[in-house]
Structures are given as C-alpha cells and as structure tokens.
Amino acid sequence: VDTLIFAGITRDCLEPATANLVAEAVGARNARVFDLINACNSLVDAIDVGDSLIRSGKAERVLVATGERASLAINWQAQTMEELRQSVASLVVGDGGGAVVLEPSDDPGRGLRAREFRSDATQWRHAIGGRFRPGTQACELCGGLLDRTFRCNGRDLFAAAFSLLYPTMETVMARTGWGYDDLDVVFCHQPTKRFVEKAIPFLGGVGRAAEKLWGTAERYGNTSTTSLALAMSEAEAAGKLVAGAKVLVLAPSSGVSAAAVTMVW
C-alpha cells in the first residue's frame, strides 16, 4: 500500500489526519496518508480519488478505509418537540468499519467504467452533525463549543438528495452504455430502508433495479460511510459479487451531493 485514505466522518481527532493512526495500525509506514470527508459520500469520493491517483501514475495500490462511531451523535435529551423531530434521524445511525483496496488490473474489461458527481450546496442546512457553536453560545454545563448531535429535516433532505441522485444515476448508466437489466447488483448508501421504499414510486420503470439492491439499513441502521463497504463485503461473501459482475454504486449525501459509479468487479 503506497497511499492510504481515511474516509470516516467520526475521526479520532481533528489533527493529525486519522489516516496516520490507521496506517500505523496496519503497518503502512511508508504510505502517503490523508483524510477525505464529504459526509456519507466520503467513501465513494475516496475511491474516485484513489482511482485517479492510480490512473495518473501517482500510486500503485490505494487503501481506502473508514470507521464510524455515529452513535455518538444520537440526541437522547431532546427538550422540545421540534428538537425531537430533528433528532429522529440520529436514532437509526449505526457504528461500523470497512475498507477497500484499489489496484491496477491487467484485464481492460474490469474496473471502474464511468462516474458522475453532482451537488447543490444551497441545501446544506437540512442535516448538520458536529456543529461548532459561536463563542457566545458555549454549553452552559461544560463550556464546550462542539454540539456533537446530528440534527436533520428528513423530508427536505430526501427531496433534495433524490432530486440529485436520479439524474446522476441516469447519466452514468447512459455514459456506460448499460441498461438496468444488465446490472447484476446495485449498492446504494441507505440512510434508512424507507429511503429506498419512498424513492421507488418516483423511478417508474427504473424501479425494477431496486430488486438488485443489496440492503443493510434494515439490519445495521445508517452506517454512513461504512454502508457501501459493508454491503459489498456481504454480497461477495454470499457469492453475489463475483468477477465480471456489472455493478452500480449510488451515494446520496447531506450537503447535498450525489454520486453514481459503474464498475465491473
């Protein structure tokens, strides 16, 4: 491993990069290390960066790692109904960890095929976690400036994220030249199982691709940046993700942003 990217949201510390701690733990003492954070899209963004480093000749083997203690963001002490409403999304988060290794392939038919990334930065207020308060609004009990809780307007976040994810998905599939029937498996970051269930009616005929979706949210909750690695690991262990499989990876995120990547495993 000559490059290690840490893509978790709940880092061990603000400085140094948590990638340093991971590199020491796995023995990657000579690797270039850095953190990359973009909410729940961090893993797929890190994969894209790692792929670009390899294609440009700046790296030969990239380890993308993530680990989350998202349960730290649960707000167990909501004081008002409005605060409780904004805290509901934090009640379904889950902890976890995962990693993927990227390296060149001698087979031109395998690997990442196409990608599409979109964002609408005007929508960032729909979901906020780990907010630093102004100095005049320090916690009355501890004096701290960090509000670690995750607060979210789920309805508005869904509308904003889905409005980006759908065209992103359509674009990357057209660029790849695949139809949805060509896919063997679909991986999508799922904040909740309901996120997918709510989206299917808006997809029309494309909704049949949901039958190929490997889900984890119903068992582990919203594991944020870990969800894609977790789903891939499970699908591979189950024999669903095999060499030559045509894969669509989708990632909606707060911010808001959306990513879609096609690959041949």
How would you portray this structure in words?
The protein has 265 residues and is α/β, with parallel strands linked by helices. Helix content is 30%, strand content 24%. The chain is built from 7 helices and 10 strands. It has helices at 18-26, 42-55, 81-87, 154-176, 193-203, 217-220, 227-237, and strands spanning 3-6, 32-35, 62-68, 96-102, 111-119, 127-132, 146-152, 185-188, 246-253, 257-264. The strands form 3 sheets. It has a 4-stranded mixed sheet, sandwiched between helices. A 4-stranded mixed sheet has the order 5-10-9-8, sandwiched between helices. Strands 6-7 form a two-stranded antiparallel sheet.
Characterize the biggest β-sheet: 4 strands, mixed
- Look up the CATH topology of the largest domain: Peroxisomal Thiolase, Chain A, domain 1
Spatial sequence of strands, sheet with the most strands = 2-1-3-4
The DSSP helix count reads 7
Shape: globular
Under CATH at level 1, the class of the largest domain stands as Alpha Beta
CATH superfamily of the largest domain: Thiolase/Chalcone synthase
Q: What count of structural domains?
A: 2
